[in-house]
Amino acid sequence: MQRSLALSKSYVRPWNQIQKLPRSSHEVFISHRGIDTRRNLAGLLYDHLFRLRLRPFLDCRNLKPGDRLFEKIDTAVRDCKVGVAVFSPRYCESYFCLRELARMMEYKKRVIPIFCDVKPSQLRFEDNGSPIPEKEIEGFRMALEEAKYTVGLTFDTSKGNWSEFLESASDAIIENLIEVDREGLEIIKSPKQRFDAFVFTSSADGTIKVWRRELQNQALPGSGFVETGKCDDSVSRKQIVSRCIMQILRCAGEILGMQEEVE
């Protein structure tokens, strides 16, 4: 038992370095054109992610009177792990939307494009004598080109299945968040520590597959848990398990780190 515990500690210890990094107040930044999507797609996606405890940021939900607009937006973009750009017919008409997109690309964030009632080829910035500096306009165009060639999701608001889309979008966001957390291993300089962490995460992956299969076999349709042991019907078991994976990877190192301090 002691040998097993010691072995587990050696695998998880490198994650302590990651856990000591400041955690962002928002994990997912949602960029959208309010006039097109605030009351439907963007708002529903925010609510869905919020129920999954993913700490999303949406300007109309998180900004309050007195906030400095650009300062608050830039901080949220810089600190987020995944960006979601909800492209709509009038997205490119908004300076604020294009600025958010350019910032996400500038900070090299993972960006998931959602093409809502618009095709990637239709995304373009029209400079009709705009007072915007040429350098900033070039940044907007580069960000749009990069988004066009990023694999994303498409949705037709008049024909699409809203429930299925929200689940697909949430799954994509969760998968990217998990990958971003794993990429945190890159901050570990020691080859041995990186190998130990790789062994730990690889072992965890095998265990997680077993847990996922057991939950799928045993859980009743619509059942699950989010803190209290219950969840909204719109939250799938797959999303619950994926969220648990993230929490396990984040907390395991911290828990064993505290145990080491006690000992």
UniProtKB/TrEMBL annotation:
Domain of life from the UniProt record: Eukaryota
Transmembrane residue ranges: none
InterPro entries, alphabetized: TIR_dom (IPR000157), Toll_tir_struct_dom_sf (IPR035897)
Domain TIR: 24-148
One BP term from GO: signal transduction
Pfam families: TIR
Name this protein carries in UniProt: TIR domain-containing protein
